[in-house]
Amino acid sequence: MKDYLKEVENQEEFFRQRELWLSSMTKDISLKESALNTLEILERQKYTYQWDWLGIPIIKMPEEILLIQEAIHTFRPTAIVEVGVARGGGIALYHSIQTLCGIGPNILGIDIKFFDHTKKALSPFLNQGVKLLEEPSTSENAKSVIRKFVENHESVFVVLDGDHTHENVLSELNMLDDLLPQKAIVLVADTLLQEINQTGKTRDWDKRRNPATALTEFMSKKPNWRKIQELCARVIISESPQGWIQKVI
């Protein structure tokens, strides 16, 4: 048998070798620098706006879509909350992956405004386990709805992809610390904003204050959360580097 066929045949060896490749990749400083340069160019070209999930625009890097699939398959969340629904592709993604994993779809999407095209795109999912809440994510009403939504769920996944100001993301994280059960996982999106120059219209966040700085402050005060390094290390072309965390206590 050819040597390369033996490598494919031996599953244990494949996974052992893959761990070694990952370790080498995460230590490669030049690779990270190249990736950041590429990401800055991709941001200027609006690369993340080019993708759909089931025909619905999903404003995410393709690598991150794959990683979200792995996270749902691994942690098997029975309740998923997305803050910042935008055009709806993320909701469709979570619904698809939960279904493929044999988990009854159960998703809450929160945004301050749902556009007509978003409501139309997501209308087929609304009687299939998807709920939408038009509300600021840290309002008392949103807090009450989230608390009820995650009640009695042992595995919960939250994506924070709305208002990217330091203050708002920190408020969201502190709120979730009170609401989520042990082992819940959170993806803090767009932590890349600490690494690259802002493009397009002026925003209320920049390299100095953004989701990454909020996450750093939160983690410094909350020893009951950990970085999920097995996910954080996986992607290179990522808008959310080091953005995966889990509540451990």
Strand segment count: 9
CATH architecture tag: 3-Layer(aba) Sandwich
Low-pLDDT windows of residues: none
Which CATH class is shown? Alpha Beta
Helix segment tally: 10
Query: What helical percentage do the residues reach?
Result: 40-55%
Strand content: 5-15%
Q: CATH superfamily name?
A: Vaccinia Virus protein VP39
Q: What is the end-to-end distance?
A: 50 Å
Describe the oligomeric state of these chains in a short phrase: single chain
Shape: globular
Structural class: alpha/beta
How are helices and strands ordered from N to C? Answer: HHHEEHEHEHEHEHEHEHE
CATH topology grouping: Rossmann fold
Q: Please state the average pLDDT score.
A: 94
List the helices and strands and how they pair.
Elements: H1 3-9, H2 11-26, H3 29-44, E1 52-53, E2 56-57, H4 62-75, E3 79-83, H5 89-100, E4 107-111, H6 116-122, E5 130-134, H7 140-150, E6 156-160, H8 166-179, E7 185-188, H9 211-221, E8 225-227, H10 229-232, E9 244-247
Parallel strand pairs: 3-4, 3-6, 4-5, 6-7
Antiparallel strand pairs: 1-2, 7-9, 8-9
Notes on the protein architecture:
This protein is of the alpha/beta class. It has ten helices and nine strands. The protein has helices at 3-9, 11-26, 29-44, 62-75, 89-100, 116-122, 140-150, 166-179, 211-221, 229-232; strands at 52-53, 56-57, 79-83, 107-111, 130-134, 156-160, 185-188, 225-227, 244-247. Helix 8 (166-179) links the parallel strand 6 (156-160) and strand 7 (185-188). The longest helix has 16 residues, at 11-26. It is globular, with a radius of gyration of 19 Å.
